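The methods section describes the discrete structure representation at length, but only in general terms. Each protein is reduced to its one-letter sequence and a matching series of backbone shape codes. I believe one specimen quoted in the main text would settle the matter. An entry of this sort, consisting of the sequence and the corresponding backbone structure tokens, reads as follows.
***
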Amino acid sequence: MDNGSFRHSDERFADIQLLRYRVPDFENLSLRQKQLIYFLSEAALEGRDILYDQNGKYNLRIRSMLEAVYTDYRGDREDSEFVQLVVYLKRVWFANGIHHHYAADKFIPRFSPEFFRAALKSVDRTKLPLADDQTVDQLCDDIFPVVFDPTVLPKRVNQADGTDLVLTSAANYYEGVTQQEAEDFYKQLKDPTDETPVMYGLNSRLVKRDGKIFERIWKSGGLYGTAIDKIVSWLEKAKEVTDTAEQATVIDTLIAFYRTGDLKTFDTYAIRWVNELHARVDFTNGFIETYGDPLGLKASWEAIVDFKDLEATHRTEVLSANAQWFEDHSPVDKRFRKSTVKGVSAKVVTAAILGGDLYPSTAIGINLPNSNWIRSVHGSKSITVGNLTEAYNKAARGNGFREEFVVSEEELERINRYADTTDDLHTDLHECLGHGSGRLAPGVDPDALKAYGATVEEARADLFGLYYLADEKLFELGLTPDKEAYKAHYYTYLMNGLMTQLVRIELGKKVEEAHMRNRQLIARWVYEQGKSDKVVEMIEREGKTYVKIHDYEKLRLLFGRLLAEIQRIKSEGDFEGARRLVEDYGVKVDPILHKQVLERYEKLRLAPYKGFINPVYEAVKDGEGNITDITVSYEERYAEQMLRYSRQYANLPYIND
């Protein structure tokens, strides 16, 4: 094992490569801080089954069936059907369900229903998710259409314009309601004069039964209550070893929210969390991001535990200290800027554990809370996850990808020299300042953009970062090595948005995931708007397409123009404006270019998606049961970890009706 914060794993399957991340400096933390990380890590793992069920009502049963065959099958484990079942199970683990973690399309098994049925009959029936008096054949008859029929629940999140997004999405956030019924239900709850609105629908499943529409709240004693109670039990322990008294109050408020499900309490928790700035160990645990809901209302469960990287945090502190300057000099309409930027804090952290919707695939930057009014009044807290960013950066080096897709040696040299720095800086600008910038016009519903809201918000933050990445202010602040460095990120961003991110989409498919739509929207818009001046060009060379940037300064101005328009759309709640931008620029794919990119990428034999195996923490105790140390190890393999998690953190019934 190396002494750095990263090493490759030999785990690779389908379109996925797994990495290991180390936790540098953990051994230098105090015993109290180590205990806090340990307790919070357990809380981060106890909610695992919540996400599986949120992603699809059959996921827990399917996972259990697959795991039973994986562990107990006594037939030929070298047989191609069993090998394909193992690949399918690994994909289900990675995606926390039967739909792709990014594209949201259902996996198509490469093993037969006949093999799976026979294999299930061969294992101990007590290992299977059987209802009372249910036979294995009856279980198969119930579940197999979901697994094998491509027309049954084909999309976890459907974003196709002109369809009922609720009825055509497999995500388990709605039951028996149409999109219109869901939108009407939440619209009637909102008071347009309320200046501190809760995020309606955030922590519930919306259900229609016997003609009545109501919410089933995720809380202790409610839906997901058995898992939430386990989370709370570890949070109670963590509360006793916090870095600060304020952090103990933060955890206490989160516990109160979990017990009551009250969204006002959640807002109180969010305010206290964003204002707690002195603890070195920090965490996120709860129902946070709404990308998994086709209407962008309901939050998936996620968790991360981290601690501040004291040395690397310098650059984010510099950005935070200058937040007002960036807001004042933004190219957006003055009406939509914040006159006073409040509470912007940012830090680079070391991830200690990942859970829920942040595991195994994870974000490298986080900006919270998501409530617009809390951001305006109390500010936001941003983190860039340094040890995970480093892992991604190291995995990207020397694999031939840049050499295949970058247009020239000049661009390649610039990218190799500057990309790690400028990529990290763009993440910081996106998270620290971009998401926290701007404001809504008075009376605008925060959910006015509906299904397009997530894409517009990600585009807004990306554009903020892109616009300022080229600003001399960053050089003056010592954050960029010279005034040319930004060009490395400009090039890779456009190359990705116009071409290379297409490796994540099957041929013939459109772009559906919000972050991918955002990147294509930006890249395609500036390409089209700059055509007359040839700001950006797509050139052909020996049958291969490349991106060529002719004028970086004009490109920056185009980023500024689009930022101004995106901010206007969000600030005014212009749904039609959002729809036009996303549908015209962010969704459609050129099939000829797509095919070419896929063929070029396939020759490199790379995995387009990467994720992580968590470290393992163990409490060392003395003869009286007192914790004397917390150790961390990195040897657990992917399947071993996933099976252990299924045994240790199986907190929900297989059917959560």
